[in-house]
Amino acid sequence: MKNPLKMGALIAGLLALWIHLPPSLAAGAGPYTLATGGEQGCYHAVGSSIARLAKEKRALDLQVKPSHGSVENIQAVLAGKADFGLAQSDRVLQARQGKAEWQDKGPQGNLRAVAGLYNESLVLIASAGSGVKECRDLRGKKIAVGKPGSGMRQNAVDALESCNLTLKDLALAAPINAEEALRELQAGKLDAFFYTAGHPNRIVKQAVKGKVKVRLIGFPDVCRDRSFCYVKSWISLDLYPGLLNKGYELQTCGVKAVLVASAKTPDKVVYKLMELLGQNLDQVKAMHPSLRRLELHDMVDDLHAPLHPGAERYFQEKGLVK
User: Fold this and answer.
1) Count of C-beta atoms within a 10 Å radius of residue 206
2) What gap in Å lies between CA 45 and CA 37, rounded to an integer?
3) 53-74 mean pLDDT
4) Domains recognised in the chain with CATH numbers
5) pLDDT in tens, 174-216
6) What CA–CA distance (Å, rounded) separates 248 from 308?
7) d(Cα 275, Cα 47) in Å, to the nearest integer?
């Protein structure tokens, strides 16, 4: 273009267009999807916060996709229906080994870990009038055990097995999530519900504030029987004034919330996401109470799946893996 005025106008126009592009387009990436969980749950809150951070920092066009939880998220990632997903570490292990929901499909070799985010503790929230004070009291009770496809449901099965019970020993094994279970418990339709989550937790706080008084019950024996995928966990009871529990802390077992991807997810995209989280760690820690103690070195522990090459590259640069 020979006319310098026209050339200048064209450059200015292109620059203005770039400035107003969506963050992902300006960064040359996206859109990508992150499968989370129920819209009132912790996974969805954390996933939505990560997506907002990605947009704010012009890193990736990351869009959240609500789901029923860990199993659905892993299956979505492996089927190419989601680029990333949040899942419990025990479910990651089962998928890698071809167990539980993956028994017929065999080991899911393409599943990769991106980062561990926070610990999730397994508890039972029981009403005062239920008579449930320990695991063996659950026989013949009406209990919410989580929706099929959720990590919580498998945790409920494992907890029951730790005291020689099964779902069939319950008067009702309600296949509902924690939000629904809380309403049913406060309405007197349930005796208790299982819940696996980080702490402090909104659902537990709401349960404590309800008209029906509640106690938390832990399952430390699950760690004894399944130490390969569960870790010991302690919950400070000071977090929830008004509980029927006595003492300072509750011992139970837990798993880790893991950000997963497929081996087919592009390395540069995974690296970009890890770079976003690492460079803005203080902001990430402020996103949700469950993330408040997160450090980079925590992100590579208890994942139960090989690191995705994009994440591995990032952690190698930080000296956290060889």
Assistant:
1) 14
2) 9
3) 94
4) 28-117+257-317 (3.40.190.10), 120-255 (3.40.190.10)
5) 999 999 999 999 999 999 999 999 888 889 999 999 999 999 9
6) 39
7) 16
SS3 sequence of 111-158: EEEEEEEEEEEEEEEEEHHHCCCCHHHHCCCEEECCCCCCHHHHHHHH
DSSP string, 71-96: HHHHHHHHTTS-SEEEEEHHHHHHHH
**Band (29; pLDDT cuts 50, 70, 90):** low
CB 165 within 8 A of CB 57: no
**Dihedral over Cα of 96, 100, 101, 103: its sign:** positive
Give the per-residue pLDDT at 15: 42
Show the tokens assigned to 60.
């990736």
What mean pLDDT value characterizes the chain?
90
pLDDT tens sequence across 118-152: 999 999 999 999 999 999 999 999 999 998 878 88
Task: Report how far residue 177's alpha carbon sits from residue 49's, in angstroms, rounded to the nearest whole number.
Answer: 21
Backbone phi and psi for residue 195, each to the nearest 5 degrees, phi listed first: -155, 130
Rounded to an integer, what distance in angstroms lies between the CA atom of residue 313 and that of residue 240?
Answer: 40
